[in-house]
Design goal:
Chain A is of the alpha/beta class. In chain A, 43% of the residues lie in helices and 14% in strands. Classes of the chains: A alpha/beta, B alpha/beta.
C-alpha cells in the first residue's frame, strides 16, 4: 500500500488512530501524480456557470470552453443561456498578435445576438501569458452595450480550484449592490453555494417558504443577474459548500454588514440543524418562525423515517468510501452513511483545508483513511484494502470503482438525482441501495469467489422431475 | 449620385458557440492511450489533464489516467522544465510504464518551453533512473491547443510515435501496418480480425481495443493491458505494407508516409471503410498486399449487406440527413448514405480541413446529382442555422447534436465522439461490412420508429 503513495504526499494521507492527527493540505499538486483536481478556470466556471441569464464567454483556445459545455446538471426555471458554450477559440495568430480585438468583436456580437443581462468573460492560461487587457475590453463593451461586463481572473495555472472560487466571488461581488433593495422582507436570505443540481435549490426554497423566509438571490443555482444585484438587501447569507462562495459571503459581510451562516442540506441531521439555525437567527423578527420550522421538520421526518428504515435494514454494516471536491460535503456524507448504518472507511477531498480535515478526523471512526488531493493509484489501492461496497465521487472516480467491482454514487455536479433536503436523503438511500444491493457484483472477479454456487450445469434432471 | 452599397454577406460570428471540435492535446492523449504500457502526459496546467480525463471517461466509461506537469504561476514565468522532469520521474516510478507520451498545451507552447530539448535533457540527467525502470520510451508531440483540433492532435501523436520509435532494425514477419484513425475499440477488434483472416499480422496504431474497453478486474491495473506493443512499433519499418484510413489526412500528418519515406514500406491511403464501396476498396487492398482472396466469411457478410440494402431501401429512400463530426468519419458516412439512397444534405465538421470538400465530392458524385452542402470549421450554431432550412429527417453524429434533434423532433443516430448521453459507445462497430450492417439496421430502424411514433395508427407491423 505504502508503495502507492509518493514520498512527497505521505503527509497528505492520514489513518485515524495510528498517530496524532496532522495533515498537510492546500499544496500545489505534485507533477506526474495524476491529481483529480482541475484548475483555477474550473473553479470559476463551476461557480458562475448556473447564472442562467448571463453570457459566459471563455476567452482562450477551444478546449477550456468545450470541456465545460453543459456539464453541470444545474437546472433553470427560465432562460438557459448557461447551457451554451461560448469561446473566442483563440488561434495561433491571436496568440502572436493579441486576442483583444477578437474578444471585443466576439463579445459585442454575442451580446447583440442573445441579449444577456450581464456577461462574464473568463480568462484562461494563455490570456494570462499573452497579456490581453481583459478588464479594458470589458469596460469598453460595458459602456457601449449598457450591461455589466465582468472579467473573471481565472488563468488556469495561477493556483488551484480554490483560487478560481475566489475569482468567481470577486466577479459576482461587482454585481452585488448595484440595484435597489426596496421591498425586501426582513425575513430574507440569499442561498450561497447551491447550484440547483437536479433541482435541489427548489427543494431548499420550498422549505424556506414554509418557514416564512424569503429568498432574494440564488447564488448561483437557477441564478439571475438582477437578483445578484440586490443580494445585499437580504438579512442573512446561507453558505453551503465550503470553498466556493464563502469569500463572497465574507465580502458582503464586510461591505454591507450581511451576516452569514454555514449550512448543509445533505443528510437528515445537517438539513434539520441548518433550518433550526436559520429559524433561530430570525426568532426576534418573527417569534413564530421556530414553531413553523419544527413543524416542517416533524412532518418531513415522519414521512421520511419509515421509508428510510427499509433501506437501512438492507445496508446495515456495509462499507463506504468518499472522495469529493470540497470537504464540507464530506462531513454531511459521513453522517448520512452513519444514518444508513454504514461505516466510512475512506474520506478525502480535492481542496479541503486544515480545519476541514480536523473536523473529518473528529467525526470519523478509528481506522478511517483521510486523504487530500488524491489520485487513481492511491484511491484504487484504498478501495481494495478496505474492501468497500460503495464509492462516492464524481465522473473521474466512477470507472475506478466499477473496474474493481465496487458500487458507485455520483455526488458531483453531473448527478441527475436531487440529494439535498429530506427528500434528498431518501434519494441518496435509494441511490446507495440501487448500487450496493445490485446482483451484478457476484460476477465480478473481486467477488466471484464469495458466490461459488452457480446455476445447475445440466437441467435435464430438473426437467425430468417436473415432467414426472 | 452616391451608389448604393453593395449587399454584403452576413458577417460571420467571431465567437464559437457550442463547438463541434475538441482541442489538440485531447486527440494526442487518445492516440497515446493506444500504445501498450503507455501513460499520456500533458505538459501544462493541471486542469487540462483533469478536464480531458473527465470528458473522455464519460464516453468510454473506463479509467483513464493522464499525467500532468501541473505547472503553477512560477513555472509559467521561469519555465516548466523542472516540473516536466519531476513529473516524468514520478510517472516512471509509480506506473512502471513502457512509454510516456508527452503532449504540449497552449501554456507551454506560449511560454516557449522547448519540450523536445527538455525530454532529451531528461534522458541524459536521469539515465540511471530510466535504466532502473526498464527504459521506457518517451515520445513528444507538439499540440498547442490554439492550432488545429483534436483530430490534428491525434494524427500528430500517431505520426510522432512512428517518427520517434519505428525502425527497420528488428525485422518482424509478415505484418501489415494499419493506421485506422480515431475509431472505436470495437472497430479495432474487428479490423484486427479481418487482417488476421487474410493470414497476416496486423500492427494497428493506435490500438485502443483493450485499453479503452477492458474487462472487469480483480486487482486495479495501473495501466490497462493491451495497446500496440512497442516492439511491434519498432518493427514497423519492415512490414509488408501500410494501410492508412483518411481521405482528409494531409500528407504532412501521415504516419504511413514516414514509413514509406524512411523505410520504403509501401503506403496505401484509403477512405475509412464504412459502406460497401469503401469497404470493397479496403478488402481489395488486403487482397493485393497478401495475394489472397477475400475469405468466404467476408463475402457472406458483404452479400448479406447488399441483401439488406435491397430489403430496407424503401423505408429510407430520399430521406435527408445532416452529418457532422471528425472529417474522415463524415466523409465515410457521406459515401455510405449516398449508396443507400439517403441524401446527406449537410456534411459538416468542426475541424479546419482543405481536403474535406474534395473528399465529400469524390465519394458522392458518382451517385448524387447534386453535391451536398459541405462546411468545415463550423460550430453547432452554424450547423443549426444551415440545417434548419434543409429540413433533415435524421441527424448523424456525436451526442452534442441532441439539442437539435430535440428541437426538430428528428432521430439522432449517435456515432463518433463524444457520446455522452448513451451507453456502449466503445462497442459501436461501424467499419467493414459487419459494422456497416449494424449501422444500416440502426438507421432504417430509426426512420421506421420516427414514422411509427408520429403515426396516429400505432402500426405494429411495418
Amino acid at each position: 500500500m505504502t508503495n502507492t503513495i509518493f514520498a512527497e504526499r505521505k503527509d497528505q494521507v492520514h489513518r485515524k488512530g495510528e498517530e496524532p492527527f496532522q495533515m498537510a493540505c492546500d499544496k500545489e499538486s505534485l507533477a506526474g501524480a495524476v491529481s483529480q483536481r482541475a484548475c483555477v478556470f474550473c473553479g470559476s466556471r463551476v461557480v458562475l456557470y448556473p447564472i442562467t441569464d448571463a453570457l459566459h464567454l471563455v476567452h482562450g483556445p477551444i478546449g477550456c470552453a468545450v470541456y465545460t459545455w453543459d456539464i453541470r446538471g444545474a437546472l433553470s426555471s427560465g432562460l438557459e443561456l448557461h447551457r451554451h458554450s461560448y469561446s473566442t477559440d483563440l488561434q495561433e495568430s491571436d496568440v502572436i498578435f493579441g486576442g483583444e480585438d477578437k474578444l471585443y468583436r466576439a463579445l459585442t456580437q454575442l451580446i447583440d445576438r442573445i441579449n444577456p443581462k450581464a456577461a462574464f468573460v473568463y480568462s484562461t492560461c494563455i490570456v494570462g501569458i499573452i497579456g490581453d487587457d481583459l478588464a479594458g475590453v470589458c469596460r469598453k463593451v460595458e459602456r457601449e452595450k449598457g450591461i455589466p461586463v465582468i472579467p473573471v481572473e481565472s488563468e488556469g495555472f495561477k493556483g488551484n480550484k480554490r483560487a478560481g472560487y475566489n475569482a468567481a466571488c470577486r466577479a459576482m461581488f461587482q454585481l452585488v449592490g448595484t440595484a435597489s433593495t426596496d421591498d425586501i422582507s426582513p425575513l430574507s436570505v440569499n442561498i450561497l453555494g447551491d447550484f440547483n443540481l437536479a433541482g435541489e435549490i427548489w427543494i431548499v426554497r420550498e422549505y424556506l417558504e414554509r418557514m416564512g423566509v424569503h429568498v432574494v438571490a440564488n447564488i448561483t443555482g437557477d441564478g439571475r443577474v438582477d437578483d445578484l444585484r440586490r443580494a445585499h438587501g437580504a438579512a442573512l447569507n446561507l453558505v453551503q459548500c465550503s470553498g466556493s462562495t464563502i469569500d463572497l459571503a465574507k465580502m458582503m459581510e464586510e461591505k454591507y454588514g450581511v451576516p452569514f451562516l454555514r449550512v448543509s442540506y445533505f443528510g437528515v441531521e445537517d438539513m434539520a440543524d441548518s433550518l433550526y439555525k436559520i429559524a433561530d437567527f430570525f426568532k426576534d423578527v418573527d417569534p413564530q418562525v421556530m414553531e413553523r420550522t419544527k413543524a416542517l421538520v416533524r412532518d418531513e421526518l415522519s414521512e421520511l423515517y419509515p421509508k428510510l428504515k427499509e433501506y437501512r435494514k438492507a445496508l446495515e454494516g456495509k462499507k463506504a468510501a468518499i472522495y469529493v471536491g470540497g470537504a464540507f460535503k464530506a462531513f454531511s456524507l459521513v453522517k448520512a452513511f452513519r444514518h444508513l448504518g454504514m461505516t466510512v472507511e475512506l474520506v478525502g477531498s480535492q481542496t479541503g483545508t486544515e480545519e476541514d480535515y480536523k473536523e473529518l478526523h473528529e467525526i470519523t471512526d478509528p481506522g478511517t483513511i483521510i486523504v487530500d488531493d488524491s489520485n487513481p493509484l492511491e484511491l484504487s489501492s484504498f478501495l481494495q484494502e478496505k474492501d468497500v461496497d460503495i464509492f462516492v465521487g464524481g465522473v473521474k472516480e466512477r470507472p475506478i470503482a466499477y473496474k474493481l467491482g465496487v458500487g458507485f454514487c455520483d455526488h458531483n455536479h453531473e448527478r441527475k438525482e436531487a440529494l439535498e433536503g429530506f427528500v434528498g436523503m431518501l434519494n441518496f438511500a435509494k441511490e446507495v441501495y440501487s448500487t450496493v444491493m445490485s446482483p451484478v457484483w457476484r460476477f465480478t472477479p473481486r467477488k466471484r469467489a464469495l458466490y461459488s454456487k452457480a446455476l445447475e450445469t445440466d437441467v435435464c434432471h430438473e426437467i425430468k422431475a417436473i415432467e414426472n | 449620385m452616391k451608389s448604393k452599397p453593395l449587399k454584403t454577406e452576413k458577417e460571420p460570428y467571431v465567437a464559437t458557440t457550442d463547438s463541434c471540435k475538441q482541442c489538440a492535446p485531447l486527440g494526442a492523449c487518445l492516440a497515446f492511450k493506444g500504445v501498450e504500457g503507455s501513460v499520456p502526459f500533458l505538459h501544462g496546467s493541471q486542469g487540462c489533464a483533469t478536464y480531458m480525463r473527465r470528458y473522455v471517461i464519460s464516453h468510454f466509461r473506463e479509467p483513464l489516467d493522464i499525467a500532468s506537469s501541473s505547472l503553477g504561476e512560477k513555472h509559467a514565468i521561469y519555465g516548466g522544465g523542472p516540473n516536466l522532469k519531476l513529473g516524468l520521474k514520478n510517472v516512471m516510478a509509480k506506473y512502471h510504464c513502457g512509454l510516456i507520451g508527452v503532449a504540449t498545451t497552449c501554456l507551454t507552447e506560449t511560454i516557449g518551453d522547448d519540450t523536445p530539448r527538455l525530454v532529451k535533457e531528461f534522458r541524459n540527467e536521469f539515465a540511471d533512473e530510466l535504466e532502473c525502470h526498464g527504459n521506457p520510451s518517451i515520445v513528444n508531440v507538439s499540440t498547442p491547443s490554439y492550432a488545429g483540433s483534436h483530430v490534428d492532435g491525434f494524427h500528430s501523436a500517431v505520426r510522432a510515435i512512428v517518427d520517434q520509435l519505428a525502425s527497420n532494425v528488428q525485422a518482424v514477419e509478415n505484418t501489415l501496418n494499419l493506421f485506422p484513425g480515431f475509431v472505436s475499440p470495437a472497430d479495432i477488434r474487428y479490423l484486427k480480425e479481418i487482417v488476421h483472416d487474410f493470414g497476416i499480422n496486423p500492427v494497428v496504431l493506435p490500438d485502443i481495443s483493450e485499453t479503452l474497453d477492458g474487462p472487469a478486474a480483480a486487482e486495479y491495473e495501473k495501466i490497462p493491458s493491451g495497446g500496440t506493443p512497442i516492439a511491434s512499433i519498432k518493427g514497423m519499418g519492415t512490414a509488408l505494407s501500410s494501410i492508412e484510413f483518411g481521405r482528409c489526412l494531409a500528407n504532412s500528418m501521415s504516419a504511413a508516409n514516414v514509413l514509406e519515406d524512411r523505410f520504403n514500406v509501401r503506403s496505401r491511403r484509403l477512405g475509412t471503410p464504412i459502406g460497401l464501396r469503401e469497404t470493397d476498396i479496403f478488402m481489395d487492398a488486403l487482397e493485393e498486399v497478401t495475394c489472397r482472396e477475400t475469405p468466404v466469411k467476408y463475402e457472406l457478410e458483404r452479400g448479406r449487406l447488399v441483401d439488406s440494402y435491397v430489403d430496407g431501401h424503401k423505408y429510407i429512400s430520399g430521406k435527408k440527413a445532416v452529418i457532422y463530426g471528425d472529417p474522415d468519419m463524415v466523409v465515410a458516412l457521406a459515401s455510405f448514405l449516398t449508396e443507400i439512397g439517403i441524401k446527406p444534405v449537410l456534411c459538416a465538421t468542426g475541424a479546419k480541413s482543405q481536403l474535406f470538400k474534395t473528399a465529400i465530392k469524390a465519394v458522392t458524385e458518382e451517385i448524387l446529382d447534386e453535391i451536398p452542402k459541405i462546411l468545415d470549421d463550423v460550430d453547432f450554431y452554424d450547423i443549426e442555422e444551415t440545417a434548419e432550412e434543409l429540413k433533415p429527417d435524421v441527424l448523424i453524429g456525436s451526442s452534442k447534436g441532441y439539442k437539435l434533434s430535440r428541437k426538430w423532433n428528428i432521430p439522432l443516430i449517435r456515432l463518433g465522439f463524444p457520446i455522452h448521453d448513451r451507453f456502449g459507445a466503445q462497442r459501436i462497430c461501424q467499419l467493414g461490412y459487419k459494422g456497416t450492417q449494424d449501422l444500416f439496421d440502426m438507421i432504417v430502424n430509426a426512420v421506421i420508429q420516427a414514422k411509427q411514433d408520429r403515426s396516429p395508427i400505432g402500426y405494429t407491423y411495418i
